[in-house]
Amino acid sequence: MNFIDRYLPPSKFNSVLKSLPKQFKLSVIGKSVLNQPIYGIKIGSGKTKVLMWSQMHGNESTTTKVIYDLILSLSDSGGSFLVEGLTLYIIPQLNPDGAEAYTRLNANGVDLNRDALDLSQPESIVLRKVFKDFKPDFCFNLHGQRTIFSAGKKGKTATVSFLAPAADPEKSFTSARTIAMQVIAAINNQLQQSLPDQIGRFDDTFNHNCVGDYFSCEGIPTILFEAGHYSNDYNRNITRKFILEALECAIDVIQNKTYLNYSVSEYLKIPENHQDYVDILCKNVTIKEGDKVFYNQEMAVQFIEELEGDKIKFQPIFHSFGDRIELLAHKTIDFQDNSRPSVFLFSQGENINNEDFWCFK
Ligand SMILES: [Zn+2]
Q: If you measure from the C-alpha of residue 71 to the centroid of ligand 1, how many angstroms do you get, rounded to a whole number?
């Protein structure tokens, strides 16, 4: 069992929970809209408390796989290194209904990361209750991000991104936010060795209804982890290794308080995410749009993820075309080099079902 696929429904993941070593305290902490259990796992008894939750967006499974990897790693070490200083509280799948359906939203169609103030959904209430009862000193908000992001303008792919969420509209460096920034700077310092120039900083516009912003506002240092794209790694099993490294580093620097050696300015040096990528750039294609024909065009193609059976299919979608596309691409195909037809008929946002689009198969 190593969860290679992108699709990770509770029906698969929950098998992990049944065989947890006894130092992991498992409990049902609430129910989803569709009455699925939401689990919490506690490990350690140290003074410093870290709360982390994954898959509040159901289609963001990478960090849940990392939680599985973290559990394995903690099991191997007997969890002993944590017991000394930390208590971890892990919610592996906050949105089990979304994880089952492979949707960002919960079963009521609500984005749980826009429900921190409203608490309109049972899953949001579960997270808030754990936050109040457990009283964490640190929060890790675990997410996945799309393939479109670069680390810095026209930079390399943002494989991992972080954010110390703002606690007010002015984006002040409150004491809690400063600590989160120091932890991220420490992780970045280590992770740059294995993942140079592929670490980005997420947009910090304040939204009180986002969970990270809310917790930051409550004075708890909160760190957003975003699992992004790595070249040809659409199932994100390479990204997964980097996120595990980031998570273990975060735990380590919190435990040893070495994050105090880092500064806000080191955090601010991490390049900001830009939306500069598409999945595929096609060169020298002919586009027919209505009765107009455009020759020697560039065409940008973006994948969307669709659940088919128990697999995720990456469906190519027409993004844009023009004489020259000012976007970077994870893959470039020059149709001049191919003997296959290169004529495409579609309009923006449409599925590409053209049989001639053999290159995506
Ligand atoms: Zn997310």
A: 21
| DSSP result, 20-48 | --TTEEEEEEEE-TT--EEEEEEE---SE
Tell me the CA–centroid distance for residue 112 and ligand 1, in Å: 9
Instruction: Tell me, yes or no, if the pTM score tops 0.85.
Output: yes
Residue linked to tokens 């001639």: 356
57 alpha carbon – ligand 1 mean position (Å): 5
Question: Which domains does the chain show, CATH number per domain?
Answer: 10-275 (3.40.630.10), 277-360 (2.30.40)
Report every protein residue that has its C-beta within 5 angstroms of ion ligand 1: 57, 60, 143
Query: Is the distance from CB of 149 to CB of 158 less than 8 angstroms?
Result: yes
pLDDT digits (tens, 9 = 90+) for 3-52: 999 999 999 999 999 889 888 999 999 999 999 999 999 998 999 999 99
Q: How far apart are CA 38 and CA 92, in angstroms?
A: 8
